[in-house]
Amino acid sequence: MMSDVKNLWGNFNMPPASVPEYLNLMREQADMLESQTEGLLLGELLQSKSGGCISYHFNIIAPKLKSYRYTLFRVIAGFYTYPVLVYDRAECDDENWSSAGVEYFRRPKNVEFTTLNISPSQKVSLATPTCSIENSEQFEQSLAKILQSDNTKEVIESLLVKSQSVFS
Hints:
With 168 residues, the protein is an alpha+beta fold. 28% of the residues lie in helices and 22% in strands. The chain contains 4 helices and 5 strands; from the N terminus they run H-E-E-E-E-H-E-H-H. It has a 5-stranded antiparallel beta sheet with strand order 1-2-3-4-5. Strand 1 and strand 2 form a beta hairpin. Helix 1 runs parallel beside helix 3. The longest helix has 16 residues, at 21-36. It is elongated, with a radius of gyration of 20 Å. The protein starts with 20 loop residues before the first helix and ends with a helix.
């Protein structure tokens, strides 16, 4: 009988279902890329889970080049909405790119990532995030910096030239 059960949880507010602002912003920019390139390039946002973290991969796809994909940046989120880690592909070496960030959210509180004592058997990425983001304003600034960078422009222009030169 439910009425005899004590509520030891107390009262809390159920927030409305929502998507983190950074996720909406990345989706909007993926759509913007398609619009600005008249469909020659597409933006894609893929999500994966590893070690209690969610990783979002922002890819540029060139459909005319057999759907070639270039991962421009990655955002890794822990349990809470913020902080998130942003990894700009242009600033990460290839060796650390694939697993960058997952261990950051497993570190003990108040311990800097670079000071962790790690046993040789543990797989840990020592890649340094491009930045750690604490709020939506910082995320927008960081994303604008990546999207407007010389590296991003070079990648997009190269993919556009190659896509336009493919025979239909």
